[in-house]
Structures are given as structure tokens and as C-alpha cells.
């Protein structure tokens, strides 16, 4: 029997935000591959083999998954959020492009998930109603000047910006540098949202402005959303504000 490879987005954390297609595909798997904490979010019977790995070995993990599928296994590679957004799907296709030509004949399926930016947006209102962009602030796999060029271009052009991977122990200064750059472009009152572990029990969401944003508030589980000059904030008594994009752009 021939094997298969599914690349599955698990959603942002809450099990109810995992799609039925993701759950059904996971139920067919003989082997699960992924970063340990993501595998811990998937319940399986004892017959399913789990291949947990470090978060930084994406290409090795992708090759391993392809080799297992080629040997006849039904392999599920899991990522948080959407598997194609700063996650494993790209690594799998990179391994296919540069790997054994036989891998091009495998049955490969990508199963989408709710990415962190959509989970966070839904928590605070409707901040993505107009043009927005997502960026990873990590300079592990791209040079820092590329990041600053894109950030400045996006902010100057009026995009709402969602920053994934804003901070880690190995990357302590980048978010502060990004805020400094954005303060030169955006009005001081531009809303900034720090959303940590959205949809999980330890969720924490804080709303501030670019003028006051403290990079120390972010960690590896945080998404930082930066508004545009159009972004509106509706304050409420005794409740967090709503943040939204009006239907018309003023600029
Ligand atoms: N594939 C994932 C992103 C992986 S990159 C997705 O589509 O969501 C890892 C980054 O995603 C984290 O540094 C953080 O910025 C963001 N992230 C993932 N889950 C999150 C959550 N529940 N709440 C806030 N940010 C999250």
C-alpha cells in the first residue's frame, strides 16, 4: 500500500478552533511528526508513532516525514495555527524540490488551520477589515535589513501589520528596534496589541499605543498587531476596547 503525507495546521490552541478536516486527517495517521509541544496537543491511540523534534530542525523533520511516507506510512506533520504560515509546509516543499525525485510522486495534502492573526483579530474586534500584512520578525532565516525594509514599506503604505515571532531569548533586541523604526513613521497614538497564547487558558491580551509599546511585554507565544492610521479604538466602561478597521480608508 502506498503512503501519504498530510501537513496539518492545528489552529491557535483551543481544540474548538481545530477544523473537522484537520481532526479527520489526524485520525488516519500512522505517524505524527512535529515540535514536541504541538504533538502534545494531539491525542492518539497507542498504535500511532510520535516523532517529536526540536523546533529548529524543520528541514530534517520534513525529509524524515517524506522518507516515512515513501516507505508506506500515513504521516501527519503538524504545526500550530496554519501549517503554511511560518511553519512546516514550506519546509516540506523545499525538501521535495531539492530531494529524491521519487518524493514528487507522493500523495501530499495541506490541511489549513486558523492562523494566530485570525484568532487574535477575533478576540479584539475587526482590525483586519482592510489591507494588512503578516511578517515574521525572526532574523534566523532572513537578514535583518530585509525585515526593516519590509516593515518601513508596510507601515508607510498604511497596512495593519501582524508580527509573528516578535521575541525570543536568542533575539532580545529586534522588537525594540522595530518599534523605534515604526515610531518614525506612524502617529504616536497608533494602536498596538500584544496577544499572548490567544485562545489558550493562559491567554493575555494588552492594548497600548506605538508611543508606549514596551518590547519586554512580548515573548515567543506573543503576536504583536500594529494598527494603521485608520485603525479605530472604541473604549468601553469596565471592559477592554474594541479595535476595528472602518470600511473606508481615509488615506
Ligand atoms: N503557523 C503558526 C505560526 C508559527 S510561528 C500560525 O499560523 O499561527 C510562531 C509564532 O506564531 C509565535 O511566535 C507567535 O507570534 C504566533 N502565535 C502562534 N500561536 C499563537 C497564539 N495562540 N497566540 C498568539 N500568538 C501566537
Question: What does this protein structure show overall?
Answer:
With 251 residues, the chain is an alpha/beta fold. 27% of the residues lie in helices and 27% in strands. It has seven helices and 13 strands. The protein has helices at residues 20-27, 36-39, 58-70, 88-98, 116-124, 144-156, 174-183, and strands at residues 4-9, 31-35, 49-53, 74-79, 107-111, 125-126, 132-136, 160-164, 191-196, 204-209, 222-226, 232-236, 239-244. The chain has a five-stranded parallel β-sheet with strand order 3-2-4-1-5, sandwiched between helices. It has a five-stranded mixed β-sheet with strand order 7-8-11-9-10, with helices on both faces. Strands 6-13-12 form a three-stranded mixed β-sheet. β9 (191-196) and β10 form a beta hairpin. α3 packs across α4. The longest helix has 13 residues, at 58-70. The chain is elongated. The termini are far apart. The model has no long low-confidence stretch (mean pLDDT 96). The structure holds S-adenosyl-L-homocysteine (SAH). S-adenosyl-L-homocysteine is lined by residues 12-13, 79-82, 85-87, 115-116, 119-120, 164-166, 195-200, 220-223.
Brief characterization of the structure:
The chain is of the alpha/beta class and 251 residues long. It has 7 helices and 13 strands. The chain has a 5-stranded parallel β-sheet with strand order 3-2-4-1-5, with helices on both faces.
